């Protein structure tokens, strides 16, 4: 884990990808590919560039400054606007905090950290995304019907 004063170091091919992806707009981005190509450092650098309070422009494009409170929050894994979805074993190896219930179950030896992405973690991420994208679900004027359904959470009978 890097400290807040040093932005993630990226390979040259990832710097080019970062410059292209920084211009992408949206609430979520899925980086995928064979293991070991650098998706994780690229994702962290991208999050830092998007969330930084004072982004800097380099020859390779926009980067996080590494000095502001936002960059520090990313470095210490506590930024309130950043969520990651990965298996618990990977999260623990990369120093990401687990949610409180998962942490308690693992500490109480009720179960081992999962090597797969758990359904409840995916649901938590969906809820977080809905609250971020639609903070007031009652203000639906102008929101297409398909998007209204993503905000509504009907109970099952």
Structural description of this entry:
It contains 7 helices and 2 strands, in the order H-H-E-E-H-H-H-H-H. With 157 residues, the protein is mainly alpha-helical. The protein has 2 domains: 80 residues, no CATH class; 51 residues, no CATH class. The protein has a two-stranded antiparallel sheet. Helix 1 packs across helix 2. It is globular. The C terminus is likely disordered.
Produce a short descriptive summary:
The protein has 157 residues and is mainly alpha-helical.
Set down the secondary structure blueprint.
Elements lengths: L11 H10 L17 H13 L4 E3 L2 E3 L5 H7 L12 H6 L6 H8 L11 H15 L11 H7 L6
Helix pairs in contact: 1-2
Describe this protein with a few key phrases.
157 residues, mainly alpha, 2 domains, two-stranded antiparallel ribbon, disordered C terminus
How many beta-strand runs?
A: 2
Distance between the first and last residues' Cα:
46 Å
The best one-word shape is: globular
Mean pLDDT: 78
Whole-number total of structural domains = 2
Number of helices: 7
| Secondary-structure element order, N to C | HHEEHHHHH
**What percentage of amino acids are in beta strands?**
under 5%
């Amino acid at each position: 884990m890097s400290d807040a004063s040093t932005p993630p170091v990226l390979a040259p091919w990832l710097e080019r990808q970062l410059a292209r992806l920084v211009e992408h707009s949206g609430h979520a981005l899925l980086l995928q590919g064979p293991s070991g190509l650098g998706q994780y450092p690229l994702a962290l650098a991208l999050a830092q560039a998007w969330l930084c309070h004072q982004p800097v422009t380099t020859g390779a494009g926009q980067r996080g400054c590494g000095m502001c409170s936002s960059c520090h929050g990313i470095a210490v894994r506590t930024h309130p606007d950043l969520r990651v979805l990965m298996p618990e074993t990977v999260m623990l190896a990369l120093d990401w905090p687990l949610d409180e219930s998962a942490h308690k179950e693992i500490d109480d030896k009720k179960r081992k950290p999962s090597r797969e992405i758990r359904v409840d973690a995916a649901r938590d991420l969906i809820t977080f995304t809905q609250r971020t994208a639609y903070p007031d679900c009652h203000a639906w004027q102008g929101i297409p019907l398909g998007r209204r359904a993503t905000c509504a959470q009907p109970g099952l009978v």
